[in-house]
Amino acid sequence: MGAWALITVPLTVIGILLAVPFLGRPRAFFAVAPWFARGFAWFCQAPFTFSGWDRVPEDIREGRQSVIFMSNHESQLDPPYLVAALPLPAVYIGKKELKYVPFIGWAGWAAGVIFIDRGDRERAIRSLHEAALEVRKGKNVVIFPEGTRTRTGELLPFKRGGLALAQDAGVPIVPLATVGGYGILASGSMHIRPGRFTIVAGAPLYPADFADRDALGAAVRQAIEALVAEAKSLQA
User: pLDDT tens, 121-174?
Assistant: First the structure.
């Protein structure tokens, strides 16, 4: 894993930066970055599949309605595989420290990653409000509501920040399940095991349909749990 990353991450980011003058930042990122995941999938014998997109309304599929994708978080493979699999360009919310990491921060700059200062509550709240404005203007976002990768393979409790962003933005939430990453690359491990990575999308949930944040969070969690079960059945 380390050798692969040392070689391919710099090459991928350099390719993105070289494409920026011709395509612009987001288009350059989403034209080049998916090849990192596809190359990894081939080299490490860890192919991915994506299903359930037909459950998503046409206005979302065609890019006329921005959305927030919410997924469980099994592995470091989740972000690159989702970048490669999702039919729509969607950026992540990352801690501001990543902004200054060579190559990773540069790729985030090109993609339009929304960086948040988690160490300062007031700044974090302000950053989430600014992120909601960007979503309302048309930017799609991927959020892992657990806030971190699972260390057991089980779904962790949800943080409130992602749900607050969804309520503020007022756009649909498309639940996702990623299954297989924990077995291929578990948290804290650098050892790759060949395996299948399955991504399943569900029907959107609309924040306005729920009385409060707790009800919305419970519905999102239930949807993700059902999709995880579906993804596991596809792998059986």
Answer: 777 778 788 888 989 989 999 999 998 888 888 899 998 888 999 999 999 999
Over range 33-42, report the average pLDDT.
92
* Beta bridge mates, 173: 68, 205
Report how far apart the first and last C-alpha atoms of the chain are (Å, whole number): 26
CA distance 236 to 230: 10
Going along the chain from its start, the domains and CATH numbers come out as 2-235 (3.40.1130.10)
The three-class DSSP label of residue 156 is coil
**202 and 93 Cβ atoms separated by less than 8 Å:** no
Query: For the residues of 71-139, what is the DSSP string, one character each?
Result: E----TTHHHHHHHH-SS--EEEEEGGGGGSTTHHHHHHHHT-EEE-TT-HHHHHHHHHHHHHHHHTT-
Is residue 188 over pLDDT 80? no
Alpha carbons 153 and 175: distance in angstroms, whole number: 18
* Angle, CA of 39, 45 and 46, to the nearest 5°: 80
Q: Round to whole Å and give the CA distance between 186 and 156.
A: 15
Name the pTM for this structure. Answer: 0.93
Half-sphere exposure (CA, 13 Å, Cβ side) for 68?
30
Residue pair 166/17 in contact (Cβ under 8 Å)? The answer is no
- The two tokens of residue 124 are 């974090």
Instruction: Identify the CA nearest to 127 among candidates 118, 136, 140.
Output: 118
d(CA 107, CA 16): 7
